[in-house]
Known about the structure:
By secondary structure, the chain is an alpha+beta fold. Helices cover 20% and strands 30% of the residues. It is built from 15 helices and 40 strands. Strands 6, 7, 8, 9, 11, 12, 14, 15, 19 and 20 form a ten-stranded antiparallel beta sheet that branches. Strands 21-22-23-26-27-28-29-30 form an eight-stranded parallel β-barrel, surrounded by five helices. β11 and β12 form a beta hairpin. The structure holds (2R,3S,4R,5S)-2-(hydroxymethyl)piperidine-3,4,5-triol (DGJ).
Amino acid sequence: MISVKDNVFRLDTENTTYIFRRTKFEHLEHIYYGTLLDTMESADVLAQKQTIPIGSSVNYTESHQLYSLDNMCLEWSDNGRGDYRLSPTELKMPDGTFVSDFVYASHNIQDGCITMNTLPSAYGGDQTLVIKLKDTSCSITLDMYYTVFEKTDVITRRVVLRNESEKPLLIRRMMSMMVDLPDENFSLYTLDGGWIKEAHLHKRPVEYGITVNSSTTGDSSNRHNPGFILAESDAGQEAGHVYGFNLVYSGNHYSAVEKSGLDIVRVSLGINPHCFEWNLAQGESFESPEAVMTYSQHGFNGMSHNMHSFVNQHIVRGNWKDKERPVLLNNWEATFFNFNESKLLHLAKNAKKLGIELFVLDDGWFGERNSDKAGLGDYSVNSKKFPHGMKSFADKIRMLGLDFGLWFEPEMVNQDSELYRKHPEYAVQHPDKKPVLGRNQLVLDLCKSQVRDYIVKNVSSILDEANVSYVKWDMNRHIAEGYSSSLENQGEFYHRYIMGLCDVLTRIFGPRPHILLESCSSGGNRFDLGMLCFSPQVWCSDDTDPVERLKIQTGLSMLYPPSTMGAHVSESPHQQTLRETPLATRFHAACFGCLGYELDLKYLSPEGKKDIENQIAFYKKYRRVFQYGTFSRMKVSKDNKVIWQSVSEDKNTAVTGFFQTLSAAAESGDKLIVTGLSQGRYTIRTRPQRLYIERFGGLIKHIMPIELNPEGILLRTANRHYSMTDCIEKYKCSAKALCSGIPLCSQFSGTGYNKKVRMLGDFGSNIYITEKIDMEEKNNDYQY
Length: 784
Ligand code: DGJ
């Protein structure tokens, strides 16, 4: 709810309050952002006190020695008026100076959200406050939008700058929002990394000066995700003041956290000013992307729960909103480019037997695309691989009872392609320099309408012809030479590229809402709210090693819900890390997301097949809890454990993933803690999982009646056809006892094996299912 009284603006969500006010000189002073307050609270009491002049300050007017913008908490600030902190703008004003001074002119409150013209934004908000600011000497206005999403405790912000002056205005920096928060010994948490090590969570204290989290790659990037967190330094998963920020944008982003000498922390975020410059002629406006902020006093999990609900309810849209996502098989790691129709049909048949629902044909189905050196940009189906065309192949997949999905990389072109030979001008490249290549490809210039038309026409026609129900939209290189011959001002390139991408996605998928779109950009280059407005799920990383995924998905889970995370089970040893991990752990990491398989099923042993069949049946039964449950990162007392938990919407069921990274000798006891359940009594069960005898190596001879060579053919064959059951624990207790935690059985430590020993070792894991006792009747028909 938004209220305005005595120059004070107050924005309430269910559990938070945000307050700011107009000052006597009509600047907007930030007052409070935190836990929900009583309606009676006075802004004067909550505001920062300035009762004595501060030396070296530059005062806004001579008459007011206490009014220095540099010393205040503000909602917006300009250059050249005495505030020396980072301004959200750098504007070359129509008068030729860099001095601006935006002050309050008017405001209005409207129901719901106000849709943007050039970019996607959140929808379904409760109310929007629009405050118009005007520069004190030039005819330039700045509209500040605040939308409240009450139930999810989120407020979004954005601005629109408009030039009413006859002379041009040049924008060199334009943030979506800024806010000044008094320091609470804050730490800054960012999600950083690179290819196959995306979104690792990093913590650093907020120090004096500016810390920047940004991307310059043309996408939101796997280097630094646009989302970040500010938390009091001793905040934990369940308690402590935590603020989350994000941007609904998939291009170059920028956020700055600056601590001033007076211990005020300025947070600003928006489009990256790097290589950015935008001209506004008279009558023109510029919209910033929408920024998202939330606050929770319940630690990191509280903040994440807000962000998760916000993404599920106000960012993801269309037919797939809130809908369970299919279990898919993707042929990429099974075949790479080397496939034909019969090989794929064989794979699909095996997939169907295991319970897979969707078959995804990845890279290599078109043009001369037999390696990553050729074919991108061409859409003719490769007739050697598909002699009867794509529709015929897709029909065969559907005849098997599977849905059909297709990979595209529509924004790219190989120099060795029909498209490039015909239209070299479609590619982004500097007119007088040799192009720089990434994965042997160039980027198509989405600033050009003819390029966008080409993509829309060709992608749409194959989608319709083959009746495709899922698309994987890949983007495998960063943009380098930000140049388009269609632009007069090259400073507009990167932002216009993103507007072009939004245009293409809207035109292709708007009329085809039944298609489930998964955005992929070599993994996590586009894990952002901008893409999530189009694609309900995103491929987190090319790295499917479960131990790496624990880091990647833990990092992403700070700001994004499991329903958005594409997560697959692949071969072991893993193709990027050479790490050997149990099949159960690969599954357990992947099932806290949108489950898929990406391996050559024909090489599975009979035991492996049974195992995967059981995994998929289990996942389907608890899919809603895994994808849409309340996901939490559980507190751990040992460094070699990661524990994830998801609780059903009705709070009667929980699934817990208990993961061990490197095992320690003679491990001490472990506890299972389950939180967030409704009061009552519960059963707790381990998901039964197979224990392959090859895991025991030489130890096996101690339990066999005859001595066998651990490397020999007999044991290898036995391993394919026989496996043991891992320790199954079953308990009954109350939600209260689960909150404190129940001790689990001992771990294996070399002194023997029995049915009550948890066989974790390196990279072992278990899933525990906790269900309310009155639900047991309904569920006990389930066979593992
Ligand atoms: C990168 C993706 O992340 C992979 O899953 C696969 O689709 C390849 N591209 C195909 O070229």
